[in-house]
Amino acid sequence: MSILQGQYTHNLPQIAYCAQEVKLHEEQAALNSGTTLRELMQRAGLALFELIRNKAVKNILIFTGKGNNAGDGFVLAKRCLQAEINVTVCALFEPTLLKGDAAEAYQLFCRSGGKVVALRSCAEKSYDTVVDAVFGTGFRGELPCHVKEAFAHFNTSKAWKLAVDIPSGINGTTAEVAEGTFHADTTLTFIALKQGMLTGGAPSYSGEVLLADLGIADAFGDLSHTNCCYPGGKYLRSLRPHRAPDSYKNKCGHVLLIGGGKGMAGAIRLAAEACLRTGAGLVSVATHPENQQAVLQGRYELMVHGISVVAELEALLAKVDVVVIGPGLGQDAWARKLFNAAKKFEGPVVCDADGINLLAQSHLPWLRAILTPHLGEAKRLLDDSSIDTAKRFELAEMLSKQYAACIVLKGPGSLIVDGKRTNINRSGSEAMASAGMGDVLSGIIAGLLAQGLNRFEAATLGVYIHGLAAEQAARDGQLGLLASDLFVHIRGIMG
Ligand SMILES: NC(=O)C1=CN([C@@H]2O[C@H](COP(=O)(O)OP(=O)(O)OC[C@H]3O[C@@H](n4cnc5c(N)ncnc54)[C@H](O)[C@@H]3O)[C@@H](O)[C@H]2O)[C@@H](O)CC1
Ligand SMILES: [K+]
């Protein structure tokens, strides 16, 4: 449903678009809604004004550029003047470069008594609010040096930093983040969510994202196309498997986790316990014979098998519904034999860590697999160390295509890509920096597969549960957070 013009919302939609798609359809969407681009700019400026008024802003600096993003800034500036808010506009590009509606917004600002100033004179003063109206959806490539300098001066200041539509420096389509990008506390985005703001390095520059659809959401939705979703917690929780009262362990799936080479018992144990906590009925572990006791210790629900010869693993593979391969596996001859046996398994598989490294050496597709690479593993899978990992959507799509797999590209706003479908994870900190976090994620996803979710749903819900559990566990601070701290929270989230 479309919100009223001028208003903004904290309730973000579950769908995101590339910036180009927004640019392509905004004019027609405006026409179909009985309005014009000129009016949309007025509405954008009004939504910005409402936001700063709600924050009781008194002393505001607005940086402007040379496109329509600057036009929004000038509409805001004029409203601030009229409301007798102390407003300074610093034009980082000559206003003579402005065209059309933006040029008109600038002229109206000037006619209301507004003036633009040079960076030198505004850098000496302090402001409670700094607004970035330099670049919006038209931004490509790198920031010009003088823009970087202007942002650097204020990026560390205590002022509240508000980005208009998208922080200048972020590519709203690819998620690339240019050096010196505006570091917003809040971004008020217009018409629709831009996918590039939501993943990788971008979220920490976007801050809290608000949306003003400028009254054309319905018309825009009718015209536009996207494969990209930004699923909310309510929907994700609805995907959780249902446990019938007469259920028992044999009805809730049997997972076999393969990993833990000599001296590496921890990773496979973390993955296996996460799998149990997610609700898998039976959880078996195939590990190096030396690790058998260590993996079983204190978690007696696990069925732990020491594997010396491949035939022992093949016998286990014949009995299970889901396989995880990789945590702590290593890459020696023992690991390779186990990996090759696991590749013949015909059910769903989660392939992580050394499983990914071994797969990267073969380059062969793996139907039915979920691969959970971080950026380094993604490069190895594509066998291209020069690949641009900042283009996260492109990277994940390439991987999904080459391996015929579902890809979970880890990192903030993890991407889950399966063929043409993309989901962006919106749970908060994923705390992937702590040891063992990736192992816990693979165990959660396998636990969900075992209970009947398809691979795209299991990967999406798994990443969400993992992120939320990490967020809850880290509430008192990230340092010292252990992967095993997630277990009790996983249990709570699974309900
Ligand atoms: N009337 C409209 O079309 C509306 C536009 N809106 C605003 O307009 C914005 C999009 O406007 P534009 O398409 O004019 O784009 P921008 O305002 O992002 O500016 C594009 C300009 O910046 C230049 N540029 C891009 N990358 C650069 C770089 N790396 N270094 C130097 N210059 C660079 C481009 O050549 C172009 O001149 C949206 O983000 C939104 O804020 C909203 O006001 C809603 C209505
Ligand atoms: K901006």
UniProtKB/TrEMBL annotation:
Residue ranges occupied by any YjeF C-terminal domain in the UniProt entry: 232-495
Cofactor(s), by name: K(+); Mg(2+)
Any Gene Ontology biological process: metabolite repair
Residues of the YjeF N-terminal domain: 22-222
Top-rank taxon: Bacteria
Residues reported to bind K(+): N69, D132, S168
InterPro entries in the record: Carbohydrate_kinase_pred_CS, CARKD, Nnr, Ribokinase-like, YjeF_N_dom, YjeF_N_dom_sf
Cofactor mode of binding and number, as noted: Binds 1 potassium ion per subunit.
Record bears the keyword Metal-binding: yes
Reaction catalyzed: (6R)-NADPHX = (6S)-NADPHX; (6S)-NADHX + ADP = AMP + phosphate + NADH + H(+); (6R)-NADHX = (6S)-NADHX; (6S)-NADPHX + ADP = AMP + phosphate + NADPH + H(+)
Keywords tagged on the record: ATP-binding, Isomerase, Lyase, Metal-binding, Multifunctional enzyme, NAD, NADP, Nucleotide-binding, Potassium
Binding residues annotated for AMP, in chain numbering: K410, G411, P412, G413, S414, G438
UniProt GO molecular function: ADP-dependent NAD(P)H-hydrate dehydratase activity; ATP binding; metal ion binding; NAD(P)HX epimerase activity
EC number per UniProt: 4.2.1.136, 5.1.99.6
A Pfam family per the record: YjeF_N
HAMAP family referenced in this protein's UniProt entry, alphabetically: NADHX_dehydratase, NADHX_epimerase
The protein's role, per its UniProt record: Catalyzes the dehydration of the S-form of NAD(P)HX at the expense of ADP, which is converted to AMP. Together with NAD(P)HX epimerase, which catalyzes the epimerization of the S- and R-forms, the enzyme allows the repair of both epimers of NAD(P)HX, a damaged form of NAD(P)H that is a result of enzymatic or heat-dependent hydration. Catalyzes the epimerization of the S- and R-forms of NAD(P)HX, a damaged form of NAD(P)H that is a result of enzymatic or heat-dependent hydration. This is a prerequisite for the S-specific NAD(P)H-hydrate dehydratase to allow the repair of both epimers of NAD(P)HX.
Family listed: Belongs to the NnrE/AIBP family. In the C-terminal section; belongs to the NnrD/CARKD family.
Subunit structure of this chain's protein: Homotetramer.
Name under which the protein is recorded: Bifunctional NAD(P)H-hydrate repair enzyme
